[in-house]
Amino acid sequence: MTEEISSVVEVDDQEYIINFGPQHPSTHGVLRFVVNLRGEVVKNLQPHIGYIHRGIEKMCEKLTYQQIIHLTDRMDYLSAHMNNEAVCLCVEKALDIEVPERVKYVRTILDELNRIASHQLWWCSFGMDMGGQTCYFYGLRDREKILDIFEETCGGRLLLSYNTPGGLMWDIHPNFQQRIKDFIKYFRKKLPEYDKILTGNVILQERTKGIGHLSLEDAISYGVTGPTARASGFSCDVRKNYPYSAYDKVDFKEILYTEGDTFHRYLARMEEMRESMKILEQLVDNIPAGDFTAKMKPVVKLPEGEYFQRVETSRGELGVYIISKGDKFPYRIKFRSPNFCNLATMNLMASGFKIADLIAISGSMDLVIPDIDR
Amino acid sequence: MSFSFDIYDFTSFTKWIDVSLTSYCTPFWAMIWEMLIIGVAILIFYAVVGLFLVYAERKVCAFIQNRVGPNRVGPYGFIQTVADLVKLLFKELVTIKKADKFLFNLAPFIVIIVNFMVIAAIPFAKGLHAVNFNIGIFYMMAVSSMGVIGILLAGWSSNNKFSLIGAMRSGAQIVSYELSVGLSMITMVILAGTMQLTNTYDPVTNQVLVHGIVDLQKDGWFIFTGHLPAIIAFVIFLIAGTAETNRGPFDFAEAESELTAGFHTEYSGIKFALFYLSEFMNMFIVASIAATIFWGGWMPFHLGHIFGDWVSGFNNVMDYIPPFVWYIGKTFVIIWIIMLFKWTFPRLRIDQLLTLEWKYLLPINLINIILMALVVLMGWHF
Amino acid sequence: MKSIIEYISGIYRGLRSLLIGMSVTGKYFFSPRAIVTQQYPENRHGHGKRSKKQLVMFDRFKGEVVMPHDANNQHKCTGCGICEINCPNGTIEIISVSKVGEDGKKKRAIEKHIYRLGMCSFCALCVKTCPSKALEFSQEFEHAVFDRTKLVKVLNKPGSSLMKGVE
Asked: Do B48 and B79 touch, CB atoms closer than 8 A?
C-alpha cells in the first residue's frame, strides 16, 4: 500500500503519509483522504473516492422515468426529496407538463423540511467532529420530528420516493399542516439552544474563524455551490436565481457571507435553517386545493433531445441532465452532484492547517459520500 | 488493644490492626502484612470506583443528552459495566506486527501503577490514609505526572501513526499543564502553610505535631477562607486538572473524531480496559485532590466563629455526617462538573491548548500566587 | 493598556460563553422529562414498567408489501403483471395459470405472487400502479430472519381465489 501511494504522492523526508478513511469516524462514510503530514500540519491532501460507487447513472439507463426516482433517493440520502424533485422537474420540463399548484406547494414545503432535517444532521455531526458529542443527540432529537412528518405523509423516513413525474405519489396526510406548524413552534425554541451550546462557544469560534479559507474566485472556478459557496460570497442559490416549484411565490433571503471560512460556512447553514422555517410559515397555510398529480400517461416517453434541470439541494446545486432517444428509458442520465465539486476544494482549503482543522473543514463542507460516488 | 470501629474516626481502627499484627509477628513482617492489606484494599477500591465511574459517566452523559443510558443489566443498568468488563476479559489481545511487544504490554501497567501511587497519599477519612507524607501534595504532583510515560509508550510502541500523534500531543499537553496544576496547588499551600495532608500527632501526648491541610479547614474550607485567590486557583485547577486527565475538551491523546482512538487505537481486550479504567481513575484522583485542598477533603462543612455563637450547633449537626461520606460526596460533585465539561464543550486544537496554558492560565496563576501571598501576609483571609 | 483590557474582556467573554453552554446541558441533566428514548421491544406492546406508550406506526409507513385477503380467502389480484413490470429491482414475480371460469371463458389467474423482501427498495410503484388495488403496505417492520430464503414470500394465501367483481 505504501509503495502504491509513494509513487503517486511526492514526499520529502520530513513528511509522512497517513490515511484518513475509508474507515474513519469523521469522514462520514467511506471517503479516503491520503494526507501528507509534517508533524500535525497538513501539507497535501488527496481525496480518494469510489468506495461506494454503485453505478446509479448506468442503472438508470435500464429504468423508466418513474423507476429512476427511487434510485435518486440513494444518492444524497439526506436531501432525498430534492433529488427526487430534480428528476421529476426535468421530466416534466421535457414533456412540457404544468403540474398543479398544490403539487408545487407541497414539493416546496417538503424541500424545506428536508433542508432543515439535513442541516440538523449536519449540525450535530459537525458538533461531533469538533468533539462535542452532546450536539449529536440534540440534533437528532429535533430531526426526529421532521422524520415523523415525512413518515406520516410519504411513508418513508429517510428515502421518501414521494415524487413521481407529474406530481406526487399520493395526497398529503390530513395532519400534515398541523404537524409542520407544531414543528416550527418547537424548533424556534430549540434553535437558540444550538447557538448557546455551539455557535457562541468560544472554543468553536476559535477553532473555526479564519480556518479553511475559500476565496470567491476559487469557489467559482471549482464550481462550488450551496452554503459552502455562499459563505464565500458566491450568490448561487438556484431557488433565488432560477426559481422552480413555488419558490417564486415566497419571500426569503439568500444567506451570503464574504469571509468564506469554516465559521461562516457554519453560520450560513444555521441561518438557512431559519430562512427555511420562514418559507415553511409562508407556505403551510396556503396549500391550494386541487389534484395531487397531473394527468400522465402510464408509460412516460420523453421526446428526443437533451434536457437539463437544476435544483438547490441542502448541499448545493444538483443538476440532472437527460439525453433521450424518444424511448421510455433515458439514453444517458447524468447527475451533477454538489458534493463532488465541493470535495475538489479540500486540498485548497486544508493545506497548511492542522489535522484538527482538516476535520473541522471537512465537517463544515457537509459531505455526503454516496452523493460523490453515485 | 481491643477492637474498635468508629465511622467518624478510623485512627483507632487502623491502630488496632497495627497493634494486633505486631503482637503476632515481628515488626518487619507486620509491615509486610500491612502493605499487603493496603494493597489489596486499594486494588478493590480501584476496581469498584473505576467500574462505578464508568457507569456514572454513561448515565450522566445519557441524561445530558436526553437519553436513559444503560438500563438493561441489573437494576437501573447497574451491572452493565461489570458485564462490559467480563466481555473485555474474554476478548482477544491483538498483537501488532512490528510493534515493540515489551513496551506495548508494559504501557497499560505504568498508567495503572501511577494511579495506585497517587491513591496511596489521598486521605479518605479521618485516619483512613495509607501514607501521610510531610510533602503529601508535592508527592501527588510529582507522581501523577508520570502517567504520561505510559501514554507515550503506548503511542510509540503501537507502530501506528495515529497512536504516535496522540502520544506526542499528550506529552506536550501534560508537560505544560503540570505547571498550572502545580502552581494552583502551591497557591493553596501558601494559604495552608503546609504540604502535609492530615495532622500528625505525637504518639504519647496526642498533641498535633504538624498541621495537615484537611485539618486546617476545620473552621471553613479553603475555598471560602481564601476567597478570591482561592476561587481563581480552584477554577484553574479544574481546567488544568481536566487537561491532565486527558478528558474532553482536552482529549487530544484520544481525539476520537481526529485520531480514531489516539494512543490506544491498537489496544484490545483487558489492556484497553486498563487504559479506560485509568482515565476514569485519573479523573477521580484529580477530583479528590481538588476536594481535599479546596473543599476540605473529609472535613464536614463548618462555619467559622465570625458568624456568631450559633454556628457550633450547626457544626455539630454537620459532624453527624461521616467524614467518608463528605469526602465521596465532594469528589463526586467535582467529577460531575468535569463530566459536564466533557459533554458540553467541543475539543480544542493543540495550539489553542498551549495558548490557553501559556498565555492565560500561567500568567493568571502567577499573579494569583502573588495575590494569595499578599492575602496571607496581610491576614485578609478568614 | 488597550491590549490588557482586551485580554481581560476576552477571558470574561470566553468564560461566559462556556457557562452558557453548560447551562443548557446542565438544565437537561436535571430535567428527566426531556428524555426522548423509546424503549423498543417493550413499547411494541405498550405496557410494563419501561414503556407505557405503545409504538404505533403511521398508516402509510412502508413496511412490506402484502396482499390483503377477505374473510372468504379472496384477494383482488388478477395476475395482470403490472406490478412486476413496474418494479425496478425485479422484486415481484408472478406465476400465473390459465383457468376456465364458470362462464366457460379462459381466464388468467395467479398461482403464486412471489415477493422478494430482500430485494425490495420500498419505492411503492407496485402499490400505486396496481389497477385493482390488490397490493398494500403493511406496517410490519421487524424483518430480520436467520435464513435468507425466508425473505422470499408468496403473497397470495394457499387456496385463495379472485374476489368477485374484480377484472
From this structure: no
Q: How far is the C-alpha of B111 from the C-alpha of B146, rounded, in Å?
A: 8
CB < 8 Å from B in window 27-46 of C: 28-29, 32, 34-37, 39
Cis peptide before A22 (omega within 30 of 0): yes
- Average pLDDT for chain C: 82
Nearest to A201 among C17, C36, C137 (CB): C17
Nearest to A374 by CA among A53, A4, A61: A53
CA–CA separation, C53 and B16 (whole Å): 58
Domain boundaries along the sequence of chain A: 56-373
Chain A CA closest to residue C37: A141
For A212, counting Cβ atoms within 10 Å of its Cβ (0-12 exposed, 13-18 middle, 19+ buried), the class is buried
Residues of A with Cβ-Cβ distance to B249 under 8 angstroms = 131-132, 203
pLDDT of residue B3: 67
* E-only strand ranges, chain B: 200-201, 208-210
Taking residues C40-49, what's their average pLDDT?
Answer: 73
* Residue among B165, B260, B345 minimizing CB distance to A132: B345
User: Stretch A195-200: mean pLDDT, rounded?
Assistant: 86
Question: Which residue from A113, A124, A42 is spatially nearest to A82, judged by alpha carbons?
Answer: A113
**Three-class secondary structure of residue C61 per DSSP:** coil
Residue (of B187, B143, B188, B145) closest to B296 by Cα position: B188
The mean predicted confidence, pLDDT, of chain A is: 86
Chain A contact set for B160 (CB, 8 A) = none
Mean pLDDT for the stretch of residues A214-239: 88
Q: Which residue has the higher pLDDT, B71 or B226?
A: B71
Distance from CA of C137 to the nearest CA of A (A): 9
Omega before residue A298 within 30° of 0, cis: no
CATH number of C64-162: 3.30.70.3270
Partner residue facing C58 (CB), from A152, A201, A203: A152
DSSP sequence for A117-178: HHHHHHHHHHHHHTT-THHHHHHHHHHHHHHHHHHHHHS-SS----EETTEESSPPPTTHHH
Average pLDDT, chain B: 82
* pLDDT at residue B131 tops 70: yes
CA distance B331 to A31: 43
Q: Which residue has the higher pLDDT, C163 or A301?
A: A301
Phi-psi region of C159 (alpha: psi -120 to 50; beta: other; left: phi over 0): left
Query: DSSP label at A62?
Result: T
Range B255-284 average pLDDT: 83
Q: Which of A325-339, B48-62, B273-287, C87-101 has the lowest mean pLDDT?
A: C87-101
Distance CA A295, CA A273 (A): 34
DSSP tag of A373: H
- Give ipTM to 2 decimals: 0.82
- In percent, the amount of chain B with pLDDT more than 90 equals 0
Q: Which residue has the higher pLDDT, A28 or B357?
A: B357
Residues of chain A found within 8 Å of residue C86, distances taken between Cβ atoms: 64, 66-67
Contact C23 A196 (CB under 8 A): yes
Q: Count of alpha carbons within 13 Å of A38, Cβ hemisphere only?
A: 11
From the CA of B88, how many Å to the nearest CA of chain A?
A: 22
Burial of residue B379 (number of CB atoms within 10 Å: 0-12, 13-18, 19+):
exposed
Q: In the CATH scheme, what architecture does the domain A56-373 have? A: Orthogonal Bundle (1.10)
Chain B's closest residue to A137, CA to CA, is B65
Which set of grid coordinates corresponds to residue B209? Answer: 505535631
